Predict the structure.
Amino acid sequence: MSEQQSTTSLSAEDEARLAAVKKRTGRSAVIGAIFLMATSAIGPGFITQTATFTATMGAAFAFAILISILIDIAVQLNVWRMITSSGKRAGELANSAIPFSGHLIALLVVIGGLAFNIGNIAGGGLGLNALLGIDAKLGGILTAALAIVIFLVKKAGPVMDIVLVVLGVGMIIMTVVVAVIAQPPIGEALRQTFVPDELNFATITTIVGGTVGGYITYSGAHRYLDSGLTGPEHAGPVMRAAANGILVTGIMRYVLFLAILGVVASGVALDLSGQGANPAGQAFGAVLGDAGLRIFGAIFWAAAISSVIGAAYTSATFLSTYTKKLAGGWPLQLATVAFIVVSLIVYLSIGTAPAAILVFVGGFNGLILPIGLTVFMYIGWFRRDLLGAKKYPLWLLIAGTVVTLLTWYMGIVSVGPIFALLGIGA
């Protein structure tokens, strides 16, 4: 009898220990999802785009940031809720609603993710160049190598989560310090946030693509699936997690804009052309001299490597749309590593200026954003059975539909100017 009691007691202890481990893993995945989305959205592309457009548009660029945040809210809340309620990744969910649509979305996300990752590795090179003075291409190699090491460790998920949180918090703190010292014209920035002197759809499409387009749309939601807290009954916590991620990115976007605006408003002219152009680095250097350039290098590199991780991981998860063998575990890790290696090889092979790449990839992903949104809005309106619930917030569907139509319009009118960034088209 005592032996049986001992066995039962041991089994209960094991179950309690297992439950505690699952809870910690789930909490780590949720935090990781928030910061994966946030750090992906404030990567080197966004930083370079912000510096470039603030230099050309001044305070009027604040309106584009406001629009990007509003679009972010409508997109992320819908995508997070639908993916986690269904328990399926985006490609699989899309295929369940419209045959082969998931394959199309997966293809576009992987292509866009590759474009993003080339830019992210380029950004890592620029960051280490500013921080340590090493060659930008060598910096790109080191950035890619460290990202690969992170994915090859035994417990890649938890390690990735810790790295993303540390990098995200560090970026925000350093950017706030620079913004305070730069002393931007806050009153003018607030006015033009709502009443801009200039409206440029190509700029808005590019900044939207750089903060919520392509793989970024699905990065946080796919990571959240790893928490196991899926199904419509978890819709509340999911919405709060998505909102927290949007809050982090929104603060970072506006603070970075204010930091650059303070420099531009003081009369400093940023060089936006040439192979070595690094407008954001110039802005930080103008505020704090050599120390500012080093701080920029640290921020830019942190943004780059976290975005390399986000782009590679999320793009690799979409490959499971084509084969279930890549749904998780070592196959997914190896696919992620292969994605980074390919991105690095392409970056080392091309001769386009890194800053130009970082601006273009935002525009490119802004162009493909409405395609995936259209499928998800169809699911929300007509295939709620796939979400495990009969009801879905009407306000969320209306907001998502309005944003979908808006991104289609912006994409159509912005195709020419966006491809012109690389010397293609008019």
The radius of gyration is 22 Å. Residues 148 and 337 are 6 Å apart (CA to CA).
